[in-house]
Queue: 2 jobs
Job 1
Amino acid sequence: NPLASAGSDSPVPEQVDVCIIGSGLTGVSCAYHLAQLVESGAIGSMKLVILEARDFCEHLLSLVRRNGGQLVVGRFSKMHGLTMQYGAEEAIKSTAIEEYTVSEIRKIIRENGWEGDVDLVECRRVNLVFNPRDLGGIESDIAAARRAKVSGIDNVEVLTVEQAEKEYGAKYPGYRQPGNNLWPLKLVTKLFQHAQDPAASRNSTRSFPPAGFSSATSSSMDLALYTHTTVMSVIPSWIGDSNRAYDVQTTKGIIHADYVVHATNVYVSHLLPQFSEPENAVVPVRGQVIGTRASVPRGELWSDNFVGNAGFEYWFPRPCPSSERPLIILGGGRESAPWEYNVTDDSILDETVGKTLRGFLPAVYPNSFSKDTEPEFEWTGIMGFTPTKDPYVGLVSSSSARPSGEYVSVGYNGRGMARAFACAEAIAQMIVAKQNGKTWERPPWLPIWYLTEQTRTGL
Ligand SMILES: Cc1cc2nc3c(=O)[nH]c(=O)nc-3n(C[C@H](O)[C@H](O)[C@H](O)COP(=O)(O)OP(=O)(O)OC[C@H]3O[C@@H](n4cnc5c(N)ncnc54)[C@H](O)[C@@H]3O)c2cc1C
């Protein structure tokens, strides 16, 4: 983590245009998109800081920093219910945003030649259905997605028990579609470096900038990162002598800012208590993960990534030579704990969850995993769940007693890799539109139900 403690010893600036709180995928993606908007000429210049209480990208992504994160479009999940609630045209946006995120991230990786830097593995995502009762629900979701002509739905293929056993050694039916794994911390590091200095972070000899972008340098983008800098409060600066809208009180002093982005995920309610109300809650849910070796070499095992047991378990191999036994990253086991809801302590492991995880792969693939193999790694992390199972994106609801330049993008329900980058783009666009005195227009891939009430009513 080359940026782990970047800026931790430096004093913070007194004045900035935008202050982003949190250096995870959301905060850094927001900085990346703002830098792109400056580079494209959509806005003249910008002084921007990212403030991080811990190490750079420390929280959730630290948990997956030893392994790859799954970057997969959920093409049909919840499609039936969403169609009933919002109509087919809006419902397909639940897939459109993930499709957009995955294709944009892959495009950026390709254009900059980062494939090796971020350990991108293009593979297939296999969804194994353990309980026959789940089949009906999945089939109606797929049927609804086909009726709505969800992009890519034709790439979803059904796996019979016989096929799954032949190809994977697992006796369960399932579904399969294209997928990707990558190393999240490495991606976020690259995105930050690119936002700060696009030319320096590029490996590719391919021509750049891409079509549609001016060749202006990013010299008008002034981006700095301050780790080990906790934000304690964000208050309107009506009373002070600053011309800026907000006083951001940090452990290193006050920063005056025009815009504030809360990219704090599961911690959001510390600064914005309204996100602890039941209808807007971001509920902390602990996830546990192990890294364990297969008992056969990679050449005799699958290289796809998997989800099973109604989404509770997910697993995938780390790349290695075909003669070596691969390390498999397996997360889940919450159903045996039970659920791990409202658990915020990521410093301890749950014994029951650990036992479930240890028994899982030998039970699903008896010929490729041994019950006697102890995991090489085991760790936990906290995910942010919401009542809608989708994130909150947009302006923070406020009374007329506060200025309206505070934004939030939090609560990805364990699917941040496929959504945070695009949600952060929407926030960057909202800021630039407001700064330019224009009305923000919702991108075609952004579901309306992701938007905060304040943003929805302003449309
Ligand atoms: C074990 C595990 C495995 C996962 N695997 C996957 C996967 O394979 N695919 C997928 O799509 N998703 C996965 N997820 C979910 C994904 O990691 C998250 O959705 C994503 O990381 C959220 O990013 P974020 O930037 O919004 O939040 P975070 O990464 O949590 O960043 C928020 C940051 O804000 C900082 N912060 C909070 N409060 C303050 C403050 N007051 N002052 C300063 N800084 C503050 C925190 O320290 C933190 O670094 C997984 C999650 C876990 C726990």
Job 2
Amino acid sequence: MTDRLIIHCAPWLLPISHPPLRDGGLAVRAGKIIGVGRFQEIVRRYPGAERVDHTESVLMPGLVNAHTHLELSHLAHLSQEPVPASFTQWISHMLAERAKADADKKTILAAARAVLAQQQEQGVVALADIANTGFIQELAPEFPGHLLCCKEYLGLRSDEVEASLQNLETAGEAQCCTGHAPYSTHLQLLQTLKDRAKRLGHVFPVHVAESPAENDLIRFGTGEIRDFLEQRGFWDNSFQPTGTDKKGSVSYLHQHGLLDSRTLCVHAIHVTDQEMDLLAETRAKVCLCPGSNRYLGVDTAPVEHYLRKGILPALGTDSLTSNPELSIWREMRLLAEEHPTVDPGDILRMATLGGAEALGMEKTLGSLEAGKEARVLAIRVPASIQNTAQIQSCLVHNNAETIADYTTDQEHKST
Ligand SMILES: [Zn+2]
């Protein structure tokens, strides 16, 4: 990394935190953004700075993938198969294939490493990964961005809680730990995990309201998830449903003190209007995974409502077991297809600032602002583009055809 002051110039600049700029300039020194504005103004402000031109390009902050399971990457064949008949059928199939593959650490890491390299190529600068094995942590030093690894706990039976709590005591304080979902993780375990995350200032990602079947269980303790849990011996009648058809997973988490600004509700599809208010009031974060949701056929999230309530969701790819392609660009395109009234500018905010906020990294990532890390993408766009609406639409609706040049470190690549 160089200490030289460099001004990056491009016909378009998308700061995300501010309206797009024509003929923008971005002053960078020692890996940090120190100035953002119109090119002429930035040049006046920093005389003598080295200049790098990015012709026919847009500069924007790096992307954030707020939900992955890299340790499942060796099971990519699952999402190439026909769509499963039900949510629990997919879970059963995934668990069976995982057991059958019985992959060793080397195999798991090789597949995960390949996915991580793709993420980097696609301009992802931060990921939140959920894992049971603890192997993925070893890849963090290889990734030039931020790889947040969360160790996941689950088990709904009372007699499983003690063993998990003992295991949790062995986790170092730097280790982020979380629970899988309200339908798979005992309340006492979820509460202990959340208390720990609060004490240590960690993010607490949890799968929430992914399938309609989940709400059947949370509301009444019935349905296909109950059947699945019973069949596998994961059910012991200790689960206390909310008992009303108006209160699903989000209400359940709120009722038990599990929602705050560091709780990241992943999927959050089957959420009532009142539950969205709870998310807004507690400033809990939401991560949408349109590609995974489409494959599993679990419906689409109420994106327009979230935005109207002042909630900016993050985007995540989930794993290759439920999503045939792990690309935040594709997630943006799918979301735009499914929600044509959502402003493409908001979709770009979700993929950048929304993700940074979800990971508690909004002070350093997610937008082009002075003081943040200079993790910037230079993306080639057609010269014919005339206005900001066109540029936002071009980025959200297209993929490789127009996005020709990524770089996460302008200082190295542009010389
Ligand atoms: Zn997931």
